[in-house]
Design a protein that fits this description.
- The chain has one domain.
- The chain is rod-shaped.
- The chain is mostly helical.
- The longest helix is centred in the middle third of the chain and has 35 residues.
């Protein structure tokens, strides 16, 4: 548990609405959920661009480039910059997964 300080004017106003700790917890949870939802949408939009270009999910694409040599050779011909796309796609896909796990943890507890 962490302790935060707030200005007296806010604390006095909060007391008028009930249990201050409960109100602050609810407000912080709502704020975090809203911000996380925006972040998740942005990350999904970024990931979707590569899914549309390559016609599959990141996990499927990664599996193919790691296990299917013919697939990787064909990529070199059809998408010569695929390796750069892969690095960026991986970054955003992993960040998306982290945010989904983070929000799930917040929503279940």
């Amino acid at each position: 548990m962490q302790i935060i300080t707030i200005q007296d004017k806010y604390f006095e106003a909060l007391k008028l609405f009930g249990e201050t700790n409960e109100i602050v917890e609810t407000a912080l949870r709502q704020f975090i959920v809203e911000q996380a939802a925006e972040r998740i949408k942005m990350l999904r939009d970024k990931v979707k661009v590569w899914e549309e270009i390559y016609g599959e999910s990141f996990n499927s694409f990664q599996h193919k480039i790691e296990t299917d040599e013919a697939f990787a050779r064909k990529l070199d011909e059809t998408h010569p910059l695929w390796e750069g796309d892969f690095v960026n796609w991986k970054f955003y896909a992993e960040e998306l997964q982290e945010w989904l796990e983070r929000i799930q943890n917040i929503l279940i507890t």
